[in-house]
Amino acid sequence: MEDQRLRDHALSVDEEYRHLLLKHRGCEEKLDKLEHRFYLTDAEKLEKTNLKKQKLQLKDRMQEILNKYKEELAGEPV
Question: pTM, whole model, 2 decimals?
Fold first, then answer.
């Protein structure tokens, strides 16, 4: 539950986090379309690999932002 609270907080106050989340979702949608194809060209295979890498980088950056807020919120009185 705390993770959801952190994500909600980041969404409400952090423009970068919102932007990253939108890009992450876009990568997921593109990957989903590629994964439902019966055959992928070499270019599509490369795009799939690059999308997975980009998605991971976005997720890592989003986690960094959440960690920052986790530290900040840990210091607040309950």
Answer: 0.85
3-state secondary structure the chain: CHHHHHHHHHHHHCHHHHHHHHHHHHHHHHHHHHHCCCCCCHHHHHHHHHHHHHHHHHHHHHHHHHHHHHHHHHCCCC
Distance between CA 40 and CA 23 in Å, rounded? 23
Spatial separation of the C-alpha atoms in residues 70 and 6, rounded to whole Å: 7
What sign has the CA pseudo-torsion 27, 58, 56, 65?
negative
Question: Is the Cβ–Cβ distance between 51 and 30 less than 8 Å?
Answer: yes
Entry field: residues in the chain = 78
User: Are 12 and 73 in contact, with CB atoms under 8 Å apart?
Assistant: no
Per residue in 1-22, pLDDT tens? 478 888 999 999 999 999 999 9
